[in-house]
Write a structure and sequence with these properties.
Layout lengths: L1 H20 E4 L3 E7 L2 E6 L2 E4 L5 E4 L1 E7 L2 E7 L2 E2 L2 E12 L5 E12 L2 H6 L4 H17 L4 H6 L1 H16 L4 E12 L2 H71 L8 H19 L9 H17 L5 H4 L14
Antiparallel strand pairs: 1-4, 2-3, 2-5, 2-8, 6-7, 9-10, 10-11
Helix pairs in contact: 3-5, 6-7, 7-8
Pfam family, one: Band_7
Subcellular location: Membrane
Membrane topology: Single-pass membrane protein
Length: 331
């Protein structure tokens, strides 16, 4: 009877011992096991066996914020998922001595449970402190306007610094984001005035550029019009000159062998042009001055009649506007 009781007691002790040695690790979790106070191994997700009273889990200290209040707790099982750490707002002085309130958020993930447990006393507090000091350092080297323009650059720099420091803690910083930048009221008003002035300046520049372009286009159009007009006048002058050339050639051909003076044809054309201008001269007033050279030219038309015949002088014999005055007088 005593033997049976002893066996039952031993079986119960073995069952209790085994139940204490069986550890279930959930997915995306890990547990650091120490044997006699020294690191032994890291338990992976699933069913694991340890030696009770000899193997003990090493807890990790976690700092979290609940309603902006810090909460410190210890956990036996290490969360291997990506964790969002929202560190509170802090006051930062920019390079141009403007005080701003900046808060941010970072995303980290524990990659090495052993380094996360033994690397620092409080992992989250270390990450938060490093993020705040790195943020102050980056913002302190930049002016306020540059901060608003370079958020992505600041985030990239912070991530690089945090990732390098996090390697010895067994974690990886995936992203660091500046969530909000709060400036004093007078700074916001000054920025609004600057923005309005900048928009007015851009509008003025756009208007001036439009006026400049319009004037350039107008000047270019006037230039092309003047060029076309000059080209037309050039062609007209060329055609007139060609016509006069052909007329002189015809007159010279008609006078060939009939006149002693080769220039008689030219004098005839000059006299004919003079006769054509007399009506226009008569319109300018009641009396017209007729120079002596004009009477000589008119006298040469009689000689031309004998050379060309009556038909060739029909244009000269046509009635002209009355001309008053004498070769030597005028009113």
């Amino acid at each position: 009877m005593n033997t049976l009781i002893t066996l039952i007691a031993i079986a119960v002790l073995v069952a209790v011992f085994l139940s204490m040695g069986i550890t279930m690790i959930p997915q995306r979790r890990a547990q650091v096991i120490e044997r006699l106070g020294k690191y032994h191994r890291t338990l992976e997700p699933g069913l694991n066996l340890i030696i009770p009273f000899i193997d003990r889990p090493r807890a990790i200290t976690i700092l979290t914020f609940k309603n902006d209040q810090p909460v410190v707790r210890t956990e036996d099982k290490i969360d291997m998922r990506e964790v969002v750490l929202d560190f509170p707002s802090q006051s930062v002085i920019t390079q141009d001595n403007v005080g701003v309130q900046i808060d941010g958020v970072l995303y980290y993930q524990i990659m090495d449970p052993q380094a996360a447990v033994y690397g620092t006393e409080n992992l989250v507090l270390a990450i938060q402190t490093l993020a705040q000091t790195s943020l102050r350092s980056e913002i302190g080297t930049m002016e306020l306007d540059k901060i608003f323009e370079s958020r992505q650059e600041i985030n990239a720099r912070l991530q690089t610094v945090m990732d390098e420091a996090g390697n010895k803690w067994g974690l990886k910083v995936n992203r660091v984001e500046i969530r909000d930048i709060d400036t004093p009221q007078e700074i916001r008003e000054a920025m609004n005035q600057q923005m309005v002035a900048e928009r007015n300046r851009r509008a003025t520049v756009r208007e001036a550029e439009g006026y400049k372009e319009a004037e350039i286009q107008k000047a270019e159009g006037d230039k092309q019009a003047e060029i076309a007009k000059a080209e037309g006048q050039k062609q007209a002058a060329i055609l007139v000159a060609q016509g006069e050339k052909e007329a002189i050639q015809n007159v010279m051909a008609a006078l060939e062998g009939k006149a002693d003076d080769p220039m008689a044809g030219v004098q005839y054309l000059i006299a004919q042009r003079y006769i054509e201008m007399l009506p226009e001269l008569a319109k300018q007033g009641d009396r017209v001055f007729v120079p002596m050279e004009g009477t000589a030219l008119l006298g040469s038309l009689g000689g031309m009649r004998d050379l060309f015949g009556a038909g060739a002088m029909s244009s000269v014999d046509s009635p002209a506007a009355p001309v008053t005055g004498s070769p030597t007088q005028g009113s």
